[in-house]
Design brief:
TIM Barrel; two-stranded antiparallel sheet; nine-stranded parallel sheet; alpha/beta; 17% strand
């Protein structure tokens, strides 16, 4: 099954969303959450300081429909959650056999997020190598709609063998985003595969109050603005020819995860501050 990567998921102006991974982390109670805020209030607070949150607990354990409904209810209108798929779906030898696991994940309650459901992140083991036929079978099995909700998919690949223009071509055929991971451990692939961009920034430093130098925050803000205009930044590493420009722009989802995690909310807030003058920014 071939999809059209140039087709737009959205009709509204492109949005730039900035967020963090999860919302329950003890050190944040010292430098992000107000003193005295209860654990039960943390999601409500965090979802009003950033515009997206990546749910990672779903990677390790199947969550209940009730949990997804509760999370959606605690976040404000316009907020979105990206959801990391369960590792049993992606951490297997034969990806072509993932169909039942994909269906199980989607039927576990994820769709209860409704309009607050953002991209679904499919993260692969660092040892998983690029096997074109098997990987394309996996991407082809990812549904573009479920329960009346349009779905967006992004893959985070972490083996050097994916640094191949054939992988980029495959992702574009299936209109699947390639996670742009800024990491000390894994390769960065900045090629655009879909009508949205998904970024995971993993280099925050404990010694910096905002996690990142101001120059780096500025650089990511500039890149986000270009993606929102449907363009491609020139200062990132690419494997293939540039993706076709989209006049309507591309949504982008930029998450600060890993690294000095205690600094990630500050990093997210710093980037949001750079982008606030932009009307297309969420």
């Amino acid at each position: 099954m071939q999809r059209q990567p140039g087709s737009s998921f959205h009709s509204a102006p492109a949005r730039i969303r900035v967020g963090i991974g999860g919302w329950s982390f003890a050190p944040w109670r010292d430098n992000f959450y107000p003193r005295g805020l209860t654990h039960a209030q943390e999601l409500s607070y965090a979802s009003r300081k950033v515009s997206a949150i990546e749910i990672n607990a779903t990677f390790y354990r199947t969550q209940s429909p009730e949990s997804f409904r509760r999370w959606a209810g605690e976040a404000p209108d316009g907020f979105v959650f990206s959801v990391k798929a369960h590792r049993l779906t992606t951490h297997r030898k034969r990806l072509a056999e993932s169909g039942p696991s994909i269906d199980h994940f989607l039927s576990s309650g994820v769709l209860e997020l409704g309009t607050k459901l953002g991209p679904l992140l499919w993260q692969f083991a660092p040892t998983k190598k690029f096997e074109p036929d098997d990987f394309e079978a996996f991407l082809a099995a990812l549904p573009r709609e479920a329960g009346g909700i349009k779905l967006r998919h992004v893959v985070e690949v972490r083996h050097e063998s994916f640094c191949d223009k054939d992988f980029v071509a495959l992702a574009r055929r299936q209109a699947c985003a390639i996670c742009l991971a800024d990491s000390d451990k894994y390769p960065m692939i900045a090629d655009i595969g879909a009508d949205f961009v998904y970024v995971r920034l993993q280099r925050s430093a404990a010694a910096l109050e905002a996690g990142y130098p101001a120059t780096e925050i500025d650089a990511w803000a500039k890149r986000a603005r270009l993606w929102a205009k449907g363009m491609q930044p020139e200062d990132l590493p690419y494997l293939a020819e540039p993706a076709a420009a989209l006049p309507e722009g591309r949504d982008s989802f930029i998450f600060f995860v890993a690294g000095a995690k205690e600094r990630n909310p500050a990093a997210g807030r710093a980037l949001i501050g750079r982008l606030e003058p932009d009307k297309e920014t969420a």
